[in-house]
Amino acid sequence: MFEIRGAGQPENAVQGLHKRADEIASRLQRAADRNQNFKPGYWPTHNVGEKFEQIILKHLMAAEPPEISNESRVSGGEIKGMWSLTKKWRFDCVEEAINRTHKLVKVGLRRGELLNAVGRSLGLPNDSTIHDVVDLFDLPQTVQEKRAIKLFCRWVNECYYYNQAIEFGCTPCFPAFDESGGLMAVSLLSQENATMPVSEVGLRLVVPHPPIKALMDVPANELLAIRDDLGYQYFFALDNWQKHPNASTEEEVKHTLFLYTQNILKMAKLWVEFSDGLLEVTGGKGNRNQQLLTSSLNLLKTIPFIESLIVLFEESFALYQVYLPPKEENNITLRSTKTPDLNLPSF
User: Fold this and answer.
1) Which of 1, 211, 247, 342 is the most buried (most CB within 10 A)?
2) At what angle do helices 247-269 and 232-243 cross, to 10 degrees?
3) Comparing C-alpha atoms, which of 108, 89, 96 is closest to residue 153?
4) d(C-alpha 165, C-alpha 173), whole Å
């Protein structure tokens, strides 16, 4: 935390620290101290903002927005409109933020300086500091500009998280995705020059599943109990299929997944009223860059996704996508806050 706060030099501190940062850091430290197998990672010795600057210049200061899928629900005209509305932030504010960053640390771009520059462009005083992007959302006057600022901040964050992953030697992943806001995610992953994986071994299963919103109101211990029983049976079957793909192991994956999701459905309906959604599970092989690019491009379909999760293994992957028909997206109501009648036998 001392280093994050600038090591005695406030101008070098990370902007926008969480209010509970010290408490969170303390809890993480205690957990690490108690784990004999814990191996620390280290902050890069070079300035990670230098690569962030390059990414922003390449992807945000482009004349045209990234291409979108022909099947996308977002029109090319809408994307170009948002690209035009964000031009002053993508060019003027980026240049201003780069100049200010260079005055402080000589190289690179700080995300905080970019957000500060956007705030000034929207009328905030010159000495204003943006600690949370939400502080920018109410500054624009029109509905279109409010939409534009949210998209711009998302694009900046996607570039930032991508750069952080690369600089720390991690695999970049964008599990929370929407078609217009996720333009940078697809563009960034595409720059890896990855190609679609070619493999005869693949798996695609679709089963009924509660919407994610409904699961938020189910007691966690109930869901964990199902996971610890039927969930682990499914995970074991999936792992076995990935190691030995054949008709028999695939059938076991189908059987265990169905049992797992059916029990989740039954438990959820004791607590919440909803229309069943669908869970699509896609599995296959390919290197990690191929997996991520394929998964991101698959998200540009016409289905209104609620949540997606990419699970990576050493030589294979599984992509989970939960979705509902558009008219059912918000058709979720709580039954009761009381403990439901589980019809358990008395003893």
Assistant:
1) 211
2) 160
3) 89
4) 8
Q: Token pair for residue 53? A: 């600057």
If one counts the domains in the chain, the total is: 2
The set of residues, in sequence order, having a beta carbon less than 8 Å from that of 240 and lying 6+ positions away, is: 249, 252
- Sequence-ordered list of residues with C-beta below 8 angstroms from that of 200, at least 6 positions apart, any chain: none
For residues 300 and 187, is the Cβ–Cβ distance under 8 A? no
| 23 falls within a domain | no
Please check whether residue 340 lies inside any domain of the structure.
no
Q: 278-321: per-residue pLDDT in tens? A: 888 877 665 444 444 444 444 433 334 445 555 555 556 666 77
Q: CA angle, 11 as apex, 7 and 13 as ends, to 5°?
A: 50
Q: What angle do CA 229, 233, 237 make, to 5 degrees?
A: 170
* Count of H-run helices and E-run strands, the chain: 14, 6
Residue 221 and residue 145 share a domain: no
**HSE-up (13 A, CA, CB side) for residue 65:** 28
The C-alpha atoms of residue 67 and residue 56 are separated, in whole angstroms, by: 17
Contact status, residue 265 vs residue 273, Cβ threshold 8 Å: no
Residue 207 resides in a domain: yes
What single string gives the DSSP state of each residue in 185-208? HHHHHHTT-------S-EEEEEEE
Question: Does residue 213 sit within a domain?
Answer: yes
Find the angle CA(215)-CA(216)-CA(218) to the nearest 5 degrees: 65
At a CB cut-off of 8 Å and minimum separation 6, what does 42 contact? none
Kindly report whether the global pTM for this prediction surpasses the value 0.70: no
**Cα separation, 121 vs 95, whole angstroms:** 13
The one-letter amino acid code at 119 reads G
- Does residue 107 sit in helix, strand or coil? coil
